[in-house]
Design goal:
Order of helices and strands: EEEEEEEEEEEE
CATH architecture of one domain: Sandwich
Number of helices: 0
Largest sheet: 6 strands, antiparallel
Shape: globular
Strand order of the largest sheet: 1-2-3-11-6-9
Length: 128
């Protein structure tokens, strides 16, 4: 845990391509992550979904929050399809199968209650 503020400049750290992205249409940038600096049970980053791309349905053992920064698309939450626009926020409970679709490019801010993104287990929709 840190007692000092930490500044993360725009464009840092490096942009990463998600493993499931066959055409590099899913990218993320970790902002708050204990592997890159102090965290204190918060991992936060930006998720970039290029137009026409989708994230496969999956779930986590921990909750997640999402805030739409720009673009429009959909969150798939269980069997529901939720439209998303800039300014919208989501709380995704642990265990809920979810994913995202972006007919136009979207940027999402995500948060998890862990120190490191590496601590977030992604399970395919058919795994329990």
């Amino acid at each position: 845990m840190t007692h000092q503020p930490v500044h993360i400049p725009d464009g840092a750290p490096d942009l990463k391509v998600m493993k499931e992205a066959s055409r590099a249409g899913l990218k993320y940038r970790l902002l708050i992550d204990a592997d890159g600096g102090p965290s204190s049970d918060l991992c936060q980053g930006l998720f970039y979904i290029e137009d026409g791309h989708a994230e496969s349905p999956h779930h986590h053992d921990i909750p997640e929050t999402i805030h739409v920064i720009e673009g429009k698309g959909f969150a798939i939450l269980g069997d529901k399809r939720q439209p998303l626009s800039p300014g919208d926020a989501l709380f995704i409970p642990a265990g809920l199968v979810h994913g995202f679709e972006a007919p136009e490019a979207m940027t999402l801010l995500f948060s998890f209650p862990v120190d490191r993104f590496a601590d977030v287990a992604y399970h395919d929709a058919d795994q329990t």
